[in-house]
Design a protein that fits this description.
The chain has one helix and 13 strands, in the order αβββββββββββββ. By secondary structure, the protein is α+β, with helices and mostly antiparallel strands.
Length: 260
């Protein structure tokens, strides 16, 4: 009888220990599941807040574009911060020059580059530009036509001039007037073949001499959107003023009405 009771107590101790181990495993599994669920929930919240922050940053870009293009607001007068209806906010910094410009140009289309300050089109730019270096990628059959329209700070418009370069001239040097009070509108047109990666670099001297200078009339906006401690940054690069499209480089003659 004594041996049976001792054996029974031993079995009860083993069951208790096993129950504790099972309970401990269940608690650990439940805790791990809770941690994973909480982490997933936090990640979902961060993703949602990140989307809202991105929309806030995008709103800052659209606001800047509207003010520059539609209202012709001066860069110095642009708001540096704003908010949207979902509770997001944005802050913005604006740079008005670029070191280089790069763009593809389709056959018979053109790319317009403005070398002046659109907010003060009769004022000298801070770093005068006297020559441009054009480098591009093409098939070898392409030609490049460069039309230059100058005017001075007194508002006197000069006669446009045109220079043409073959693929053999790549990279080509375009000399502007050797003055500091002349501003320009430059149109680069692709002839006979498409051009890719047309890269324009400006210099302070003739024949790409002197030092490289920044090209004005191009905007780089950095807008940071914020929503509930989540940041999203959007960068936008664009011409200060809306460029003229290549389709306006031609004149249509018709005896009939033109319907747009």
């Amino acid at each position: 009888m004594f041996d049976n009771r001792k054996k029974l107590k031993s079995q009860e101790g083993s069951i208790l220990l096993m129950s504790l181990l099972i309970l401990s495993g269940m608690v650990t599994a439940a805790s791990s599941f809770a941690v994973i669920s909480l982490s997933n929930l936090q990640q979902s919240i961060l993703i949602d807040n990140g989307i809202r922050a991105f929309y806030a940053a995008e709103s800052g870009v659209e606001d800047g574009l509207y003010e520059l293009r539609h209202n012709e607001t001066a860069v110095s007068s642009l708001n540096l911060s704003g908010s949207i209806s979902n509770g997001g906010t944005w802050t913005r910094t604006v740079n008005t020059t670029m070191q280089q410009l790069t763009q593809d140009v389709d056959t018979n289309d053109f790319w317009e580059i403005n070398i002046y300050d659109p907010d003060a089109s009769l004022s000298s730019i801070s770093s005068p530009i006297k020559s441009l270096r054009l480098a591009w990628t093409g098939s070898g059959s392409e030609w490049v036509e460069v039309q230059i329209t100058p005017w001075n700070t007194a508002g006197a418009l000069g006669a446009p001039t045109t220079q043409i370069f073959s693929s053999v001239s790549n990279p080509a040097i375009v000399n502007l007037q050797d003055t500091t009070a002349t501003l320009y509108r430059v149109r680069i047109k692709a002839l006979y073949s498409d051009i890719t990666n047309m890269t324009v670099t400006a210099y302070s001297g003739l024949n790409a001499g002197g030092s490289q200078v920044s090209i004005p009339a191009y905007i780089t906006m950095y807008v940071t959107g914020l929503y509930s401690r989540v940041n999203q940054v959007v960068r936008a690069q664009l011409p200060h003023r809306a460029p003229i499209g290549g389709q306006f480089g031609y004149v249509l003659f018709s005896e009939q009405d033109l319907i747009k």
